[in-house]
Amino acid sequence: MFEHHPPASALAGYVLGYWFVSDLAGVHACAPVRTVPSTATVLTLHTGNPNRSDDGSTVPAASLLGPQPTSRTWWSLAGTQFVMAMMTPVGMARLFPGDGQHLATNLADLGAMIGDRDAGRLLDVASHDDRRTIVRELDRWFGGRLTAAQPDVERFAAAYAMLSRDGKIGAAAVHAGLSIRQLQRLSMAYVGISPKQIYEIQRLRASLVAVQLGRGDPLAGFADQSHQIRTWKKRLDLTPAAYARRGQSLIRRSIAVPEQWTHYL
């Protein structure tokens, strides 16, 4: 079962949504699940058997996964069930200020960050039978974490919006009233990756989505096809042609609304 729910309107720009995943029967058990590079930070609450990470270790029941510059492999077990909440870079700056620099490429135990009692309460929320109730309670929790807008966060948000549109770091810095060095510092402090990495990951995802869904230009933002191929190999460890030959994974083929689940290869 794969189900997506949007966040409350007050969280728009901060939380991308909530994704419910359930494989109690173990259809995908012991099969590698590859996720794509992402600038999002992912909060995951396991109410079934937790996944295993690419190093074979069991992931925490409640975790935070920082931005991932390259693809990553996971292994699910029979009895898998969890809900994910994805936060934008700006959302990370507002919801977990000061933590982003430690999370990039890392998977952290949520209890170690917010306390085991609070993490346990979130797991109790995720265990509710009604998904609408879970979404409502997660909306309330995220809303309670939203910090007051600080000038640096507002500048970072303005730069991020411009960077997402055209990828020009200098223009994004000027738009936000920052120097390039200041923008670099804020980006590393809030999300742990550079403005260049943010744009490169977003460009790659757009290219991948165009290939996955068969619409859009997979070369958009790249100098040429060779540039696209190099980026795919660097961040996905495969080329567009190899992906087309291999076909999409079983997990992606099992998803009824694929545009809501572009984080799976």
Automatic annotation (TrEMBL):
Residues 168-244 form the HTH araC/xylS-type domain. Signal peptide: none annotated. GO terms for molecular function: DNA-binding transcription factor activity; sequence-specific DNA binding. InterPro entries: HTH_AraC. Coiled coil: none annotated. SMART domains: HTH_ARAC. This is HTH araC/xylS-type domain-containing protein. It comes from Methylobacterium variabile.
